[in-house]
Structure prediction request, 438 residues.
Amino acid sequence: MSQLVEKTTTKMRSKSEEKRQKILLAATEIFCDKGFLASSMNHIAKLAGVSKQTVYSHFGNKDELFVAAIRARCSDFKMSSLPASIIDDPQLTLQFFANAFISLLLSKEGLAMHRICISESRTNPLISQLYFAAGPELVIAEISDLFVSYQQKKLLKIDNVHIAAMQFLSMIKGEALIRREYNTEKQLTTEQINAYNENSVNFFLRGYGYKFKPSGLKS
Amino acid sequence: MSQLVEKTTTKMRSKSEEKRQKILLAATEIFCDKGFLASSMNHIAKLAGVSKQTVYSHFGNKDELFVAAIRARCSDFKMSSLPASIIDDPQLTLQFFANAFISLLLSKEGLAMHRICISESRTNPLISQLYFAAGPELVIAEISDLFVSYQQKKLLKIDNVHIAAMQFLSMIKGEALIRREYNTEKQLTTEQINAYNENSVNFFLRGYGYKFKPSGLKS
DNA sequence: GTCTATATACAGATAGAC
DNA sequence: GTCTATCTGTATATAGAC
Prediction:
């Protein structure tokens, strides 16, 4: 009989946990889609397939649900990792990072988080600070480390790796990001973004003393 | 008597117009401070010192008031203009633009508009499109023109001035802007921003083939 | 045009049955 | 824990007196 009780409580727990997850998922989706204020607890409960009271018993209030939902999403943001084979070629490596970075920024989820952070950072700084630590700060550190290694290998001549990392990442955001942020009529095409990135990588390497390999034909 | 009537209606008109301006001013302030959803017509009416119904008879509804208020503010965004004396010195000129640009972005009003545009661009694209045309697009054009002239004077060697302008402006945004956007605990100091800008201008000039003048002592 | 008072809707949050 | 039904506040918007 103790086994039966055990089973029952386990079952109950898992069912409750299941609902909790469904609520969290629904909340993330709705908050990311509509922002904090325009999202209603009613709507979230309905999408999760539970009653509103169930939402409240799990998460207390709207603020706490918001933090929990965004926190859950923070861990999703990682850039695709660099193929080890190209790490000693700064040109290929930076091109890879540029493309991975802008893809992340322009992805539906990346844009949603960016929007949320900017919209809510004044009233709810915790959210954007969590995301900043879980996203942008990691990317900055990754690029900085890369630049340190290039500096040591004398492939690049960088006086301040942190500044150089910020310059590189900021530059890559470019017109593509602001046009998405502002939802302008004209948006950049993938081809335009690729051309911009290629130009930017070469510009960056020139500015930091990279010795380009002779390009085959010319001299 | 017709003169009296004239006077009276003029007086009435101007009093009505005065209230309209007060409403607009109050609306701009509150919308910029709290965003669209968190701003209430009650609050705006109170700050303007009129009744809510007066707000409605002037502007119809909240959306139209919002557009009118933001549109009124758009014209405020101009960068301080370049002193003519330094235009032939790219280093000084870019330094000037970098500082003016980041000051504009980080100003209370600039940040507020940026935040509003990003928060509302999905539900109300008109707002951000108006602002984009009145603000960022003008700055991009101004810098592009400058680069064209440097190109013609052979001071710089730029293959694509639009791309170069975006690279320059995006780079200047840098860490300072994102930390403000996200309201992170650590914010950059003016000194850090100045150092970043100086570094960035030099980096930019190197990358686009500027011949630096010998710096006095060395060589 | 301008005001006070009100209609209507919906939000976040809670009470109480099971 | 979970539900239905409800409380309470506040939002946009409107009616009607002056």
In short: The interface with chain B takes residues 35, 37-38, 114-115, 117-119, 121-123, 125, 128-129, 131-132, 136, 159-160, 163-164, 166-167, 170-175, 178, 181-185, 195-196, 199-200, 203-204, 206-208 of chain A (CB under 8 Å). Residues 12, 15-16, 19, 50-54, 57-58 of chain A lie near DNA strand D (CB under 10 Å from a C1').
